[in-house]
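Chain A, query sequence.
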Amino acid sequence: MAETWIGSCLRQAKSNELAHFAIILAENKEFMGTVTLRMNFGLGSTSTYSEEAELSYWVGKPYWNNGYATEAAKAVMSHGFAAMSLNRIYAAHFSRNPASGHVLKKAGMIYEGSQLGPTVKWGTVEQLELYGVSRDQFPGPVSPC
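Chain A, predicted structure.
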């Protein structure tokens, strides 16, 4: 399964659909998780060229509550604005997982509201909490990784 997933990551990166970043523990180079940017290059609501990406992440349970997800999300957002010329990065999390909201806020995103669906997980329509930040709103340094 891991080899299939890694192969899909490579195909998605080559097509500029997604950019995957590994989260690695600095001391021993241990793999902890990933941060992904899903590109959304198209016309925005004002008929201007919109260069946005959706951020998602996962971190292995043994590494939770250490700030790794926040640090990684912040670094990838900075890279997205600087090296990938993104204008906006957005994310969502399930309402039943407020810890993800804390990660997104601490990484510099701004709460934008909530919506029911369209995500369905295990037969249940999920309530989503929505976050986003523009290049101008991002509080961190904007620099490539």
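The first helix runs from residue 2 to 14. The chain has a mean pLDDT of 84.
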